[in-house]
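Go through this:
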Amino acid sequence: MRQNPKRLQADRPNLARVAGEGGPAAEPTVGEGGRPRRGLPLFWKLFAVQLLAAAALLSGVLLLMRQQTATSFAAYVEAHERQRLEDVAERIADQHAQTGDLALAALSVRELRRRALLPPPPADAERRRRRLRAPLTVLDADLHPVAGVPLPPGEALRVPIVDDGVTLGYVARPPLPEWIAPDEVGFWRRQTEALMRAAAIGLPLAALFAALIAAMVLRPLRRLSAGTAALARREFSLRLDANRGDEFGRLAADFNALAAALERYDRNQRQWLADVAHELRTPLAVLRGELEAVLDGVRPAGPAQLQSMQQEVQRLGGLIDDLHLLSLAESGGLPLARERCDINALVLGAVARFDAPLRQAGFALEAQLAEGEVMASVDAQRVEQVLANLLGNVLRHAQPSAPVRISTAAAADGSVEVRVCDGGPGVPADALPRLFDRLYRVESARSRHGGGTGLGLAICRSIVEAHGGRIEARTNAGGGLCIGVELPAAGTRT
């Protein structure tokens, strides 16, 4: 069969697009300048996202811990220093009860001994100052210093000096950030070092877990990618492991369902092509034989030979027309001129056309029609074609052992059912679902002596489904075959 060069040229973009959807001939995606666009692999993207998330979480936890530690540490230092000031204030009060002088009482206490009112230490003495306990200051009731070192600016920590219920003055120390004891400095340093060690250990662990999670996510994706590539190579028998309870398991199950559907489709297409080739080969072989016989002078080019060749040409043309109609119907391109029609009238027209041929072949044709008009929104010409195919199927394959009945009935929902039943021979139960397949014949049960292309029932199904109806075959009570056609109600659009 010759191919149309323009058709092939027009199909090249489609072929290139199909190959680009996963086939080995797919071209890489290009960016500006025609260079291939290279993106970061998904593993590193997942790894980076998870590592950044873990680092942000770890940083937040460490910052929170640091702030919490600082708050707790400040509360601890304040409580510790307040206890020290209360002890000093109590001793000053005891000394005041003996001396009656607040300054002398303060200087008799060890923490304030030999510490007169001196200026604050210079900046270069900061390191030495921080090695000591925070200096104390004694204030009188009017907050004037009487002993100790001057207080730097800021909110000082003060404890009252009380003797017999009378507040004599206060013991104060500089604000907490100004003076930190060696043990306090050590505690703060140890807490900071512990937090840094936790960060140093946690970040590599986060990187390890990020890599493991990325690998776990990518493993089924790689299998799915390999399976998709296998489907592009037409390896439709491949199946993925779907024994998972997560989304990847459902995705693998969907992939397996797709592979099974493609396998069935590929098998049907191969069988379809083989059957079409077989059906075309028979009339072509007869034509070739007749022509060669005439050309070789074996037979004269008489009316009988020409009529035989015309019959084969008609059969060949009928097969091509049926294939074209079936292709239109299955692709959704079959045009339907819908109108409100009386199905009873269409059935009576089909009965009138086939009554004589059926009676001549020995069949008794009976029509059982519903009362009144049975309306449906259909293409009258296509429905007549369905009825003609069903009655022609009876004429070619059935035996006149029982009457042929064609009936109509209206359902409660407004749909219309048409049935064509013959007297046999019947069809095996396992063959009933395949009766409407293209070029399928049950050779052992229903002979093909009457000819036919084997596409009649397939065309009937396509036309009925294009109307939004359905067609089914079942065994007749008398042992024959009964085919039922259900058409939608009038006004229904699909």
